[in-house]
C-alpha cells in the first residue's frame, strides 16, 4: 500500500513534465507525491545501455534551442557533459550530395514552407493542413513530407500549418553523451516517487481529490496530470466527474505522432573514416530515413523514421526495420555496407500503451487545442506535458517547463485556499 495521507498535491506521471512539477512543488515546500505507472522515471526520456560500451537514448536525445534550453544548465549542474554540437542537421551531406545550387533550392523550399506557416500563425490563421502551403507539383514535396514526419510524426496533410508556424526553434541542437534520460532520472532523485503505480481513477467530486491506484489511494487538494494525450483521449484513467468535452477534444486533436529510432552497430569503416555526420537517405520519396552515422564517434548508426513508414516498420519488427534501414544505407554507400551492420534495438512508442506515440502534433483547425489542454480545472486539476506547450512542443524541455509551471500554479492555488 502507498501512503494514503492527504497531500497538497499529487503528480500523475514521472516523465520530464512530472519531474518538473515535482521540482517546483519541492521548491515551494509542498507536501506531495508523484505516482508513475512505469517501473522507471523519465517517460519518453529513456537512456539504456547499448551493450556495446556506450549509452543510447530510446526517446529524446537533443537539447533543442540549446542557448535558452533550461535543461542545459540543469545537466551541467548534475555533472553531465554537454556536447555543443556545431552542425545544423544534414547541411554538410546535402551540399556534398546535391551541390550548392540544388541544395539551396531544396533548402529554400523547406524554409519557405515554414516561413509561410509562421506568417499564418502571426495572423492567427486561417488554419489549413501544413501541406496546403506547398504546391503539389513542387520537386521537393516528398522530401519535405519526410521532414514533416521526422519533426512531428505526421504527414503534411495531417498537421496544422499554424501550429507548425508557432514552433519556436533556434536551430541550435546540443547533445548529452551520457543520455537525456540520464539527466531526467538524476533530476528525479530525492523526490517522493511511487513507481509501478498506475492511476486508474481520479475522483475530484469532493473537497479532496482521490487518486486511485492498485496499491491504494492518495488524497490531495490538487492533482497535476502529465499523461500523454493519447492516454487521456483513450480514457485510460477514469475521471469523476468526467473531463469536460473540450478537454477531451483537445487531447484528441493533439495525437502523438509516429516516430521510430533504430540503432545499428557498425563494424569496421564501411562509410570511410568514422565521422560524426547526418544524412537523409533519399530525396525522392516519403518513405525514407534520416541517418546519424558515428554519433560521438561511436561505432553506431541511428536511423530515424517518421510518419506512416515509422508506424509500418514498428509493427513489422526489428528485423524488418533493420532490413529497410540497411537498404537505405546501401543505396548511399553500396551493397557491401550491409555486411558491417548489426541491429541493436529500436524504440516502440506507438505500441507502448503508456505513450501511444512520440510527441504531439496538432490537427488542422485545432488552433486552441494546446491552450485548452493546458487549462486548469477549478484550480484543482492541472495539466502539463510537451503537448501543452504553445511553442516548444515535441521537446523534453518544453515538457519540463510546463510541468514546473503547473507545479508553481498548484502551489499558489494551495496558498489561496
Strand and helix map with partners:
Layout: E1 6-12, H1 16-27, E2 32-35, E3 47-49, E4 55-57, E5 62-63, H2 70-77, H3 91-98, H4 100-123, H5 141-152, H6 161-166, E6 174-175, H7 180-188, E7 193-194, E8 201-203, E9 209-213, E10 216-225, H8 229-233, E11 238-240, H9 245-252, E12 259-266, E13 277-280, E14 290-293, E15 300-306, H10 308-316, H11 318-333, E16 341-346, H12 369-374, E17 381-383, H13 396-415
Parallel strand pairs: 1-2, 1-10, 2-7, 8-11, 10-17
Antiparallel strand pairs: 3-4, 5-6, 8-9, 9-10, 12-15, 12-16, 13-14, 14-15
Overview of the structural elements:
With 417 residues, the chain is an alpha/beta fold. The chain is built from 13 helices and 17 strands. Strands 1, 2, 7, 8, 9, 10, 11 and 17 form an eight-stranded mixed sheet that branches. It starts with 5 loop residues before the first strand and ends with a helix. The mean pLDDT is 96.
